[in-house]
Design a protein that fits this description.
This protein is mainly α. It has one domain (22-88, 97-195). It has 4 helices and 2 strands; from the N terminus they run ααααββ. The protein has a two-stranded antiparallel sheet with strand order 1-2. Strand 1 (184-188) and strand 2 form a beta hairpin. The two termini are 25 Å apart.
């Protein structure tokens, strides 16, 4: 009877562990794919801004010229973030445990939420530069106003980008929460059973 009981417990545990492992693989793959898609989007935005910014800087004047210049400058930084970000999604994770997947999930959510706060700061700085430019004359006026408009645009795009990425990761993180909520430890006469 004890042998039958232990065999049953072992089979149930293996089945539960298999389900949890496949869920962890699914969530890990979703994290990688969402990050990759986000970095592709950021690269596309950066490329478009570099191209239009370069052309716009040499074909326009006044505020618009400096608007395009700052767009190009800003998106050199975006490319510096997005290209390594894409490359990083092709590296295999050496560890696929509940802890590692959960930790990565929370880290991604935190990064995107923190970045959204920075984006609001970029927009506020752009607004301040634009208004500061209104107090100047000549080329300084155009430069501050153009740079300010660019920062508002770039910060606005990044705010939308970061909030969308946060929402996507938050949604996939709910599956991890369901696994966590279903973990039970049951004491038995000879030990304990951990079920997922």
């Amino acid at each position: 009877m004890i042998r039958l009981y232990l065999t049953f417990v072992l089979l149930v545990s293996c089945f539960s562990f298999g389900q949890t492992t496949s869920l962890l693989e699914e969530i890990n793959q979703r994290q990688v794919q969402q990050t990759r898609n986000g970095m592709i989007s950021l690269n596309a935005w950066a490329g478009a801004n570099l191209l239009s910014g370069g052309i716009g800087f040499y074909t326009t004047s006044g505020d618009t010229r400096y608007f395009h210049q700052m767009n190009a400058f800003w998106n050199v930084v975006n490319l510096g973030i997005a290209i390594p970000g894409i490359i990083g999604t092709y590296k295999k994770s050496s560890e696929l445990t509940f802890e590692s997947v959960y930790k990565r999930q929370k880290q991604l959510e935190t990064i995107y939420l923190f970045n959204a706060g920075l984006d609001v700061g970029y927009m506020a700085t752009g607004w301040a530069l634009f208004n500061f430019g209104n107090t100047k004359t000549g080329e300084l006026r155009h430069r501050f106003r153009g740079y300010g408009q660019s920062l508002v645009l770039q910060g606005g795009y990044l705010l939308i980008y970061d909030l969308v990425m946060f929402a996507l990761f938050k949604k996939s993180g709910k599956k991890l929460d369901t696994v966590w909520k279903n973990v039970t430890i049951t004491p038995t006469g000879m030990g304990m059973i951990i079920s997922f």
